[in-house]
Amino acid sequence: MEGPLxxxxxxxxxVEMIRFSNVMLxxxxxxxxxxxxxxxxxxxxxxxxxxxxxxxxxxxxxxxYREIVPTSGTVTVFGRDLSTLSPAELPYFRQxxxxxxxxxxxxxxxxxxxxxxxxxRITGMAPKRARIYAHELLDWVGLSTHVHEYPRALSDGxxxxxxxxxxxxxxxxxxxxxxxxxxxxxxxxxxxxxxxEELNKMGTTVLLATHNRAIVNEFAYPELMLERGQLQLIxxxxxxxx
Amino acid sequence: xxxxxxxxxxxxGCLVFVLTLMILGTVVFDKYIKTSDLELTHQIIxxxxxxxxxxxxxxxxxxxxxxxxxxxxxxxxxTFSKEVSxxxxxxxxxxxxxxxxxxxxxxxSNLRQIYPNxxxxxxxxxxxxxxxxxxxxxxLSMTLMIFVATAIILSISLVTRTGLSMQKSVIxxxxxxxxxxxxxARQFQWFTFRMSFFSSIMGMLLAFGCxxxxxxxxxxxxxxxxxxxxSQELIILIFCLPLSISLLALMVAxxxxxxxxxxLDTRHP
Lengths: 242, 269
Known about the structure:
- The complex is a heterodimer.
- By secondary structure, chain A is an alpha/beta fold.
- Chain A has helices at 57-64, 90-94, 112-121, 127-140, 156-168, 186-201, 213-218, and strands at 16-25, 34-42, 46-50, 72-77, 80-81, 97-100, 174-178, 205-209, 223-227, 230-235, 238-241.
- Chain A is 30% helix and 25% strand.
- In chain A, the strands form 2 sheets. A 7-stranded mixed beta sheet of chain A has the order 6-7-8-3-9-10-11, sandwiched between helices. In chain A, strands 2-1-4-5 form a 4-stranded antiparallel beta sheet, with no helix packed on it.
- In chain A, strand 9 and strand 10 form a beta hairpin.
- In chain A, helix 3 (112-121) packs across helix 4.
- Chain A starts with 15 loop residues before the first strand and ends with a strand.
- Chain B is α+β, with helices and mostly antiparallel strands.
- Helices cover 70% and strands 9% of the residues of chain B.
- In chain B, strands 2-3-1-4 form a 4-stranded antiparallel beta sheet.
- In chain B, strand 2 and strand 3 form a beta hairpin.
- In chain B, helix 1 runs antiparallel to helix 4 and helix 2 packs antiparallel against helix 3 (104-114).
- The longest helix of chain B has 45 residues, at 122-166.
């Protein structure tokens, strides 16, 4: 599927997609969520982000799409230190990545087609052209017969596919998914995973937070495990510390 | 967009209705005064009845009356009408100095001491009333315009803020997927523009309808309202009113949205 490419400035292009340098995150005066986190994430890779509930997977992702900032340390995405990002630049930074949430976060009063088109319309694309791309993508995720329905008429699995379509229609360099299979059954979860695999094969870097061990075990991708504020890499069943 | 937009539409429609009526009334009234060739405020016409009077004595009485008027402070000149009317009335016109306030009743009272059968010409009375009314209408129109503009700004600010708070979850989603503030503002501003435009059109059409109805029934009421006194420029101006109000509403909505979103940006890390 041909689609639009966003027009970043040269400073966005980097083989190293994400870098955490000595990142510490603490909410208020409480115990730190992360301490001295150091790792880098290459373009084109696929990682699971795992850990028990409440360990900080969502916070980890929030640092990457800059909904929060670290207490100390630096987070670099697309070669740019996120602490230097101005409020005016933030929307254009986020347009370069796709976000998928457990609760889908679709806009209820827009149809499936309009929800997917939205990601293109905010980049300035004409509505008519955006609809053409959206139709193609919804066909790819298997929802071509539901384009004019509203989110309330869809199942959780279908909603998540719409959310994925919206997240990837702009051909983002990076896809962050926070528990995308959390609200769906096992069969739907595996279907969604195949979509993520397809996207990764097309060049999108994927970081998928999940606590679904069945999925992690089935798909042999490296696993970033968060535990006690530290990150550990598990590949092929072997643990590597950062 | 939200529950407050319906009452705001009603308010805007009412404001435009009243404003349009006021503008139409003021301009038609203004034209009426000009085409009626009334010399406003600077002359008084006295109606002197010659009924049952000896012509020679009457002539002398007229001369005395004129001399008395000429001697009055504030009276610049006096003239008699060229012809005596069929009902044997003579009209004595006193032209007044513009800056001097002259009491018509006082003048009349002084002249009646010389000759009782003298009265203010009815048109003079009407003229002075019309003058006062004309000035009052102009001031009221200006005041109303300022009031309407202020009311619209406050109403649109209110409906935009309410809309923003009600649509917070949608705005959060838009910001997460990379929507710039300008895109979000555009959605609000065009909604506000459409709402204001159609409300203004309804208010204006209703006002025109009332005005046309009034003019149709004006003869029955004994008042002449001539819509042909309205110039083309005025009609264009009136029809530009909804557009002007809508553009004002659009600007207010955009400023309010951008301001709120920037405040959210500065609160967010």
